[in-house]
Design brief:
It is a single chain. Strand 16 and strand 17 form a beta hairpin. This protein folds into 3 domains: 224 residues, OB fold (Dihydrolipoamide Acetyltransferase, E2P) (Beta Barrel), CATH 2.40.50.200; 107 residues, Bacterial OB-fold (OB fold (Dihydrolipoamide Acetyltransferase, E2P)); 297 residues, Deoxyribonuclease I, Chain A, CATH 3.60.10.10. It has 11 helices and 44 strands. The longest helix is centred in the N-terminal third of the chain and has 25 residues. It is an alpha+beta fold. Helix 7 crosses helix 8 and helix 9 runs parallel beside helix 10. The strands form 9 sheets. Strands 1, 2, 3, 4, 5, 6, 7, 9, 11, 12, 14 and 15 form a 12-stranded mixed sheet that branches. Strands 34, 35, 36, 37, 38, 39 and 42 form a 7-stranded mixed sheet that branches.
């Protein structure tokens, strides 16, 4: 035999011995290194294991890890055998389940965990496309100090167990005493001392420490146990009192329910035998294509429970809640034509919807009576009835937001849309799935009840009707004109986001141009100055380097003249190509239309050092964001500066009903800085010219009570929308919430002589009703003579 063949045989033998040793360690419930765990998974696939390694970062995408705290989330950590590991093949992503494990281990809330050594017990499984660890039931940080007692080990070490299971606790530290708790509190030397096996008869969490004289106490080890039911598993057992099922990843058999709705990928079913616990859902989705079932069938399902991330935006795996479903292997129809389970009635005549709090404890306590996010989870997959829903916003993308009588008094618009508040996001709003061509507007009334199934997609809970919607009654909304009446001696200024307006007819229709012209002449009553946002270049979304928007402006100017309005002039400073955000090639920017028969663009500016000015032109803070435009105008011998703004969007902010709780607003910090820049610019003007009149207006992409708007206002300006009655204080409706995104700030010296009026032309309606933008304009009138 050749030396080469002998070498191959020898190294093959060594590899087999190593593999056998790794498997033996796993079977003896000993701790695996990360490298050993990766190798074991590659050999044997899914398997329960305890893995020890150093936390080296946060997993962003398959094979992509970050050590930057600003980019951390709380849903996972990445571990490796070395704290300095950078090779993605040697790093293991670990999914952190909601609860004690996530709270303690995640690096978003605990960046100090970076570099720490931790032991995690869970299931080896594919995660982010590579060998990972899921369904973690126990964790323990490993201290580097040799004078610390070794951590407590449990056998079994968590997961599903049968009633009556005996748990053994131990530590490698000879002579150490073990103390434990069962009530969730952290153990001390005054807790229960471990002398004999702990018998479990219900779902339990054991926390334990090891104590030895002369040594520092061990870290607290936590072990979570769920009882396996001897009787058949029912839907409410799978759903449980949690957002994540304790059966996640487990096989279940003979789960029964009545089919309530069928779609192309599977069906919903609901158990007709409720456990009478409102915290546990009786409904669930079954993933099984071509199942052959129909509504009313009583079925029995075998399959595997999984937490599935449904339809959503690109970042949904980091932001959206999961849907508990059964990935079916077998579906047996036992009976047909069964009566559907009774639907849960929502609102004051049934179950009150939490109407203040979405989540106040970071998923710490499952509390459907108080937290709306838990309330809707407790109904996931179930039939619900919404009595006499009232439409609170225009239908958009197949979502119809409604409210129903809920036994609470809310501040709403005249047409019933709840107003977004700093301390109340109105979680009682309900989204009903409808066809995208369904036409409805704020204030319309459905003349009957709607029954459907509670599901989740695109970051929100939604109700999918099981029958045709009842007839819709017109709520009476009409597009009206501003209440402010023009005066020869008073200046009128408007702000208007005209939503991606271009000379290109493929991007902007003639009908939209006609509607905008009509609105400016008749509804806004021909303002002297109009600060606009989202003016696109001449060829719109054609990405060819064009930045000039003179033809886009001319298109609207000509349309106003065609209906015998004033001949406006337009002023802007064009952005660099694709440098200010928005659709590629469109180059949205801010600008001003002004009526030269009433106001003049100051040729020799007094208040500005030059006319016109882009704020933040060379400031990296404004990268990929519209630069505010400041222009000085002369009105009847008096000068005034107007600043048109379009601050950075809210992209990147967490969804109110997403997995990131408490809510994280990633875009806010930058918007605060941008607002501070504008505030500083205004201060500079008044520093050079005391009591100079300045107006800062535009689509600020934030609310009147928000930190950015407080920063913009500072101590030198007043937000004039604050003077408007609450029922009229909105310019935008998003997901059934009326809110202020478009603002008019004026310096304190002219505030007493300024009135404003939000003109509700668009936010309440669809294009079928005359909508021309997604924002309402706001009109202001200033008595400059009195102010001076």
């Amino acid at each position: 035999m050749s030396l080469k063949k002998l070498a191959i045989i020898f190294f093959s033998f060594v590899f087999v011995l190593l593999a056998v040793d790794i498997v033996a360690k796993a079977e003896q419930e000993q701790v695996l290194t990360v490298d050993e765990a990766i190798q074991l998974f590659q050999q044997q696939g899914k398997k329960q294991a305890a893995v020890e390694g150093y936390i080296v970062g946060y997993t962003q995408n398959a094979g992509k890890y970050t050590k930057e705290p600003a980019e951390f989330g709380d849903t996972n950590v990445a571990i490796a055998a070395s704290p300095d590991e950078v090779n993605a093949d040697k790093i293991m992503p670990v999914q952190l389940p909601i609860g004690e494990v996530r709270k303690a281990v995640n690096v978003k809330d605990h960046p100090e965990n970076m570099g720490k050594k931790v032991r995690l017990t869970g299931t080896l499984d594919t995660y982010f496309g590579s060998p990972g660890l899921k369904a973690v039931t126990a964790y323990a940080f490993q201290d580097k100090e040799t004078q610390k007692v070794s951590d407590v080990i449990a056998s079994p070490n968590g997961g599903e167990v049968e009633k009556g299971t005996a748990v053994t606790l131990s530590t490698r530290a000879e002579g150490a005493a073990i103390y434990y708790t069962l009530d969730g509190s952290n153990p001390t030397s005054q807790s229960i001392r471990y002398n004999e096996q702990i018998i479990l008869n219900e779902n339990s969490v054991i926390k334990a420490i090891a104590v030895k004289e002369g040594f520092e106490n061990s870290n607290i080890a936590t072990f979570s146990f769920t009882m396996i039911k001897n009787e058949p598993v029912r839907i409410h057992d799978i759903q449980g009192k949690s957002h994540i099922s304790s059966y996640n990843g487990k096989d279940v058999k003979a789960v029964t329910g009545i089919v309530t709705q069928v779609d192309k990928s599977g069906f919903y079913m609901q158990d007709p035998q409720s456990d009478e616990d409102p915290a546990t859902s009786e409904g669930i989705y079954v993933y099984k294509k071509d199942s052959g079932v129909k509504v009313g069938d009583l079925v029995s399902v075998d399959g595997q429970v999984e937490e599935f991330i449904g339809q959503g935006y690109a970042d949904r795996f980091d932001t959206d809640l999961s849907i508990t479903e059964i990935k079916a292997k077998y579906v047996i129809v036992k009976e047909s034509n069964q009566k559907l389970p009774e639907a849960v009635v929502l609102g004051e005549n049934g179950v009150k919807i939490p109407d203040t709090i979405i989540d106040n404890d970071g998923f710490g306590i499952f509390d459907p009576a108080e937290d709306a996010i838990d309330f809707y989870e407790s109904l996931e997959g179930m039939l619900v009835t919404v009595p006499q829903p009232k439409v609170v916003g225009p239908q958009k993308n197949g979502n119809l937001y409604v409210t129903t009588a809920n036994g609470s008094q809310k501040v709403t618009t005249k047409f019933g849309t709840p107003l977004l508040k700093a301390d109340n996001a109105n979680p009682e709003r309900l989204s009903i799935k409808v066809a995208r061509n369904y036409v409805a507007k704020s204030g319309d009334q459905l003349l009957g009840d709607v029954t459907g199934i509670v599901g989740y997609d695109y970051g929100n809970y939604r109700i999918s009707p099981i029958a045709e919607l009842p007839a819709l009654q017109d709520g009476g909304f009409k597009q009206l004109g501003a209440n402010i009446q023009p005066r020869l001696d008073k200046l009128t200024i408007a702000t208007y986001n005209i939503e991606n307006f271009s000379a290109n007819k493929k991007d902007t229709s003639d009908e939209k141009v006609r509607r905008l012209a009509y609105a400016i002449k008749y509804n806004l009553k021909m303002p002297d100055i109009i600060g606009v946002q989202e003016m696109q270049d001449n060829n719109g979304t054609m990405n060819d380097g064009t930045t000039d928007a003179s033809l886009s402006a001319k298109r609207l100017i000509d349309a106003i003249q065609a209906i015998r309005g004033p001949k406006y002039e337009y002023v802007e400073i064009a952005p660099e190509n694709n440098k200010d955000g928005g659709a590629p090639g469109a180059n949205i920017r801010v600008g001003f239309f002004y009526n030269p028969s009433r106001v003049k663009l100051a040729q020799k500016p007094v208040l500005l050092e030059k006319n016109v000015v882009r704020i933040g032109q060379n400031n990296t803070l404004f990268d990929d964001t519209r630069k505010p435009l400041a222009a000085e105008f002369t009105f009847q011998g008096q000068n005034i500066v107007v600043i048109s703004n379009h601050l950075n969007s809210k992209l990147g902010d967490a969804s109110p009903f997403g997995k990131i709780q408490p809510l994280v607003l990633k875009s806010e910090a930058r918007r605060v800085q941008l607002a501070e820049e504008v505030n500083g610019f205004v201060k500079g003007i008044q520093g050079r010219h005391a009591n100079a009149p300045v107006v800062a207006l535009g689509d600020m992409n934030d609310f009147d009570f928000s930190k950015p708007m407080q920063a913009l206002k500072g101590d030198i300006m007043k937000e004039m929308l604050e003077t408007v009655p609450q029922e009229n204080r909105y310019t935008y409706i998003h997901d059934g919430n009326a809110q202020v995104l478009d603002h008019i700030f004026v310096t304190n010296n002219i505030a007493p002589h300024t009135i404003v009026d939000p003109v509700h032309l668009n936010s309440n309606v669809m294009e079928e009703h005359g909508r021309m933008s997604d924002h309402d304009p706001v009109l202001a009138q200033i008595d400059l003579k009195k102010a001076s």
